[in-house]
Specification:
Blueprint (H helix, E strand, L loop, with lengths): L3 E4 L6 E7 L4 E6 L4 E6 L2 E6 L4 E8 L2 E6 L2 E6 L5 E6 L7 E8 L5 E7 L7 E7 L2 E9 L2 E6 L5 E6 L4 E6 L11 E5 L6 E7 L5 E6 L3 E5 L5 E6 L5 E7 L5 E6 L14 E4 L15
Antiparallel strand pairs: 1-24, 2-3, 3-4, 4-5, 6-7, 7-8, 8-9, 10-11, 11-12, 12-13, 14-15, 15-16, 16-17, 18-19, 19-20, 20-21, 22-23, 23-24
Length: 283
């Protein structure tokens, strides 16, 4: 299996790939460049913002929910309109948004972190039916937010701990009891970044600094890994009409002499289908 470049614009910190089901289109972010990026039949697309933006969910054909360093807002893809929904740690100038994803219940989970990865400055929040609630505090680099196909579990990590956690959920998608250890990468010295869960319930984890995305079974066993031609792979997403294309963002951040294809977005066909990304209900 060979990963090819899908988009060759070098992102300092590529993140948050989202396959928009209704548009049949991939969106992603360059967090440090404060940009939302995409491609369509006309070529590359970009939207510039005045603050860090990092993750999105789709609301309808022409509208995304976007997480920025101070808020969640509706964003109109056709006219660039912006409608603020709720503040996100707006009073803390140290933090910005990071990894996030829509859940199976119409909610949206979003991690925050210190702009300089200050230890313990981060958290994970959930936006649901018009309100936002903090779920986890004291994190440093929250990542790997994704969900099992049956909606019974969420996954997340604090990257420096090298442990991916599994969080049981209740019938409305709220945490039901404490999170439990799902995957421990300490022995391998691997750094878990963004993740996505496929249609079979297996978790695909981008491992920062290891040039790969690894697949784990629903009970946390390592199954396989796919190598990519960039050191810092940050987050995977499934897309295409059959949801069998695996996209992965990457970053030039932290590289002494970054050169292509570092920072590119990659695509490959692993022969396994992902889940459709859930629609956000903005409340």
């Amino acid at each position: 299996m060979t990963a090819a470049t899908f988009d060759d614009r070098a992102c300092e910190l590529g993140e948050g790939p989202l396959w928009h089901l209704e548009r049949g289109q991939l969106f992603w972010f360059d967090i440090l460049g404060k940009r939302l990026l995409s491609r369509d039949d006309s070529g590359p697309l970009a939207w510039q913002f005045d603050e860090h933006v990092s993750a999105a969910g789709w609301i309808n054909h022409d509208t995304l929910l976007i997480a920025s360093e101070t808020r969640l807002f509706r964003f109109g893809l056709t006219d660039g309109s912006r409608d603020d929904l709720v503040a996100l740690e707006a009073g803390d100038v140290r933090t910005r948004s990071n990894d996030g994803r829509a859940d199976p219940f119409g909610g949206f989970w979003i991690g925050t972190m210190g702009k300089n990865a200050e230890p313990g400055a981060g958290a994970i929040h959930r936006y649901y039916q018009g309100r936002i609630e903090r779920l986890v505090s004291g994190l440093t680099i929250p990542n790997s937010i994704c969900f099992s196909p049956d909606g019974r579990h969420a996954y997340h990590t604090d990257t420096p701990t090298r442990r991916i956690m599994r969080q049981p959920l209740n019938e409305n998608g709220w945490p039901a009891g404490p999170a439990e250890l799902f995957i421990d990468l300490t022995r391998e010295g691997l750094n878990p970044d963004g993740s996505v869960v496929d249609a079979e319930g297996c978790l695909w984890n981008a491992q920062w600094g290891a040039s790969r995305v690894a697949r784990y079974s629903p009970d946390g066993r390592f199954l396989s890994a796919i190598d990519f031609p960039a050191e810092h792979i940050s987050c995977p997403a499934f897309g295409a009409a059959d949801l069998q294309t695996l996209y992965a963002t990457s970053a030039t951040e932290g590289l002494n002499r970054p050169s292509a294809p570092a920072g590119h977005v990659f695509a490959m066909r692993p022969g396994i289908a992902g889940q459709p990304e859930h629609r956000v209900d903005p409340g």
